[in-house]
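ok here's the first one, seq then struct tokens
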Amino acid sequence: MTARWGRRSHGPLFAALAALLVAVGCAAGGVGDDGAREPAEPAPQRSRPATSPEAQTTRADGTTSVAEFTSDINDAVDIAERYWTAEFQASGQQFQPIRRILPYQREGEVSCGGQALPRNNAVYCSQGDFIAYDVNWSVAAFRQVGDAFVFYLLGHEYAHGVQVRLGIRADFTIQQELQADCMAGAYLGDSVRDGTLKLDAGDLDEFREGLLAVGDDPDQPWFAEGSHGTAEQRTDSFFRGYEKSVDACDLR
């Protein structure tokens, strides 16, 4: 997946792969939690990952280097900021980008709502207005699934920040999570259509592969706290946004 900085038009806003990826989402300290605690010496907004595991599986597209991972992270955040800024402006609103993007390497290095973030996770914390992600786990996912998954991962967590800015709340976790998947799909689909992003061969398959890996266990009740949706639900939500833009994501 390649970033291209072009102009885009916007409508109104109204509106062991599975084992590696199963923790993705907002399980610890997501939308609406209190008392966020960041590292004693906060990292800059876009810190470069310090270390990463060796690649166990290398994709054919050669997505293996930490430098490429870092570039994709930065591009994903830049595009999300531009996308949501333009969407808010089209609706006569001002958008404030998410304050910080924090890579971490150890459990407890970052916390949200008084809860230490575990390894193998990515999360948006509303109180600190930051996205945090386990850099070692994220690089491993990048290597096994491909670079498209990085854009989805950041897009999903960024969508939670947009939900907070719009005052969107839901009765059940699964509703917010599936909406965030739809919003991630919208930001990516619109960015491809306007030329900001260029899909490389296999990127759509990488989206599908990653989404199939992050679905809830079929036995998990849909109404349980922390439920994100089955693999099929998450895939359907993402591609609904990807194909139909934000109008499909019930942002009214």
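and now the second one, same deal
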Amino acid sequence: MQSPPRRRATMSQVAARAGVSVMTVSYTYNRADRVSAESRERVLRAAAELGYAGPDPAARSLRYGNTRTLGVILGEHLTYAFDNPQAVAFLAGIAEVCADRGHGMLIVPTTGADDDSRRVAEAAVDAFIVWTTTDDSPVLDAVSATGRPAVIHGGPARAGSAVVSIDNRAAARAMGLETFAGARRPAVLSFPLDAERKTVLAPGIDPDTVRFPVTRQRLLGYRDAIETLGLDWKDVLVGATATNDEGEARSLAERMLTLDHPVDAIAAMSDEQAIGVLKAAASARLAIPDALSVSGWDDSTAAAANNLSSVAQDLRAQGASAAGLALGDRADTDAAEWSVVVRTSTRSSPARMGG
């Protein structure tokens, strides 16, 4: 799953290419006020040509010869790491491996700002774990430029990097078959479609245009289910939220339920979103699942408490697997397991069928 990282360009090579001393290269990155504008430009141009991202922070640790730290790149606001149940579980798995092996964990938040790549390049870590991001994220290029091992959760796949993920498409298809059974106007409540994270409500969104791999694969799976049930994907309403937030999901679900032809089934990409749907249904006095079939994702404690059908996956195990891969372990196939948990929020639940 992981090929050896390419050899990192050295400061000496940059100095030779720029026709300056190694000290000038060092000053360019660490004490720019001591370098003339002309020399600095020559150094940076040579560095770009060689793919040199700056002094390797890992070299700063003389005691171990490495930093004994894993970097986790989180493409969200830093508080997301502590507020979102999925992120908390994933990070707990990483922390467990780090604790067992005497490593630290550094969270590197990226928000699409111009300094994201610099923050990644300057991170004093031995390897990176990247929380799900877009196909074209410049952060992935910045990670690749460091030459350090990298593991990407959920994709996208990049040469030289491992990917830890369940089969999101297959899981979404299985959940969709449960959620949309008997529905005439099914809908999907989706994660953001691209880095702009705009709220969207539109029918038949083409999954292949979606830039987040996890979102794309789940939409493809839901489309597979729709087509298997003999329905037309172009008629399926897709609501994409800007964040994985219960309140925003509720607001979008309320719009879906007050259309001239309201939806009668909603498959959500998280339990938080699905609970927002349940609250919208309660406000509209819709019976679950007779008037509205609802499903979530991740099979959280909240899903069980609300009798919510959901896709179960072990994000803590996935975090541990990602950390192990970053440190040179083999892939943990158990981390990629998933299952569909059917409860009374969908029409084909065993309780409703006498099972």
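notes on #2: The chain has a mean pLDDT of 90. The longest helix spans residues 85-101.
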